[in-house]
Specification:
The chain is α+β, with helices and mostly antiparallel strands. Helix content is 32%, strand content 27%.
């Protein structure tokens, strides 16, 4: 039985990602601030009719995921850094997700090459193999061929409307008993590779800069309910960062509102993740669709 075509908004979202990605890669240079890259991503996405699916993540060296710089952050990229930029676009809630790694340090060139090769191998495997554990096996084997490890507790994922992580995972090593991909699935594959001497997994840090709305219920506190409704109106359940609301509410007040809503389990917090042994991590990512005719890379 033929499936209905995937919503055109996925293709539009993926096209925007594909157009913005090389601009992001070119923008990451020594001396450029983290916030300048985040602002560039947002401006370029919105100028093409898209919206950010989640706050642009900046991961430098061992910082691996879920870090969005806040107002006043003056951090700049350095010559020796390995930089990951993770961003996504949604069009009417239909999400595509990507990431790129950039370095000016030749010591990391092989790590970036291996990570790109792992992504290419994973996509080739997904064209003939719907078992996500086998896709993970292919990623792990390619990393090992270069002498590197994968990050064992980070995965790719299916996406859905207003959902960046929609239930199925695509691991970065072999795992038995995983759900199979099926026709109609939209999913992101994202190998994370690190040094062969590294721990090979990520841990939470106290830093939290990304949140999402998980429950749309009243707290009985007017300012909390008002803020939650603003987030719902703009984001639904897609992640956000307090920086986006600092202009309207003030930096300190928005942080306090977010903290209180997390305590009431209205918001979910995503701690910044770092490689456990402090080793650098590289990441590349594409979002694709499994259609009747096979895999179509959207980004």
């Amino acid at each position: 039985m033929n499936l209905p075509p995937i919503p055109e908004q996925y293709r539009t979202s993926g096209r925007i990602v594909g157009e913005v990605k090389p601009l992001v890669q070119a923008a990451v240079k020594p001396g450029v601030t983290f916030l300048e890259v985040c602002d560039l991503v947002r401006a370029e996405v919105e100028s093409r009719g898209g919206r950010l699916a989640f706050p642009t993540g900046i991961g430098v060296n061992q910082v691996t995921a879920h870090y969005a710089p806040q107002d006043g952050n003056e951090s700049v990229f350095k010559e020796d850094d390995l930089v990951k930029v993770d961003f996504g676009v949604h069009v009417d809630g239909y999400v595509t997700d990507t990431s790129v790694s950039v370095t000016y340090n030749p010591d990391y060139n092989l790590l970036l090459e291996a990570t790109q090769k792992a992504l290419e191998t994973a996509i080739s495997t997904a064209r003939k193999e719907t078992r996500t554990g086998e896709i993970g096996r292919a990623i792990h084997r390619e990393a090992a061929r270069f002498g590197f490890k994968t990050i064992e507790n980070l995965t790719g994922h299916t996406v859905d409307r207003y959902a960046v992580h929609a239930g199925k995972s695509i691991p970065n090593l072999y795992m038995p008993g995983m759900q199979n991909l099926k026709k109609g699935d939209i999913f992101a594959i994202e190998p994370f590779l690190t040094l062969g001497s590294a721990a090979g997994y990520v841990v939470d840090t106290p830093s939290v800069t990304i949140f999402s709305l998980v429950a749309r219920k009243k707290t009985g506190v007017a300012e909390l309910d008002s803020f939650a409704e603003i987030v719902w109106g703009e984001r639904k359940t897609l992640p956000f960062t307090p920086r986006w609301y600092a202009g309207e509410f003030g930096r300190e007040r928005v942080q306090e509102l977010v903290k209180r809503l997390v305590a009431k389990k209205i918001l979910r917090a995503y701690p910044t993740l770092v490689e456990a042994s402090g080793s650098p991590v590289a990441q590349f990512e594409h979002t694709m669709a499994l259609e009747d005719g096979g895999i179509v890379v959207l980004t």
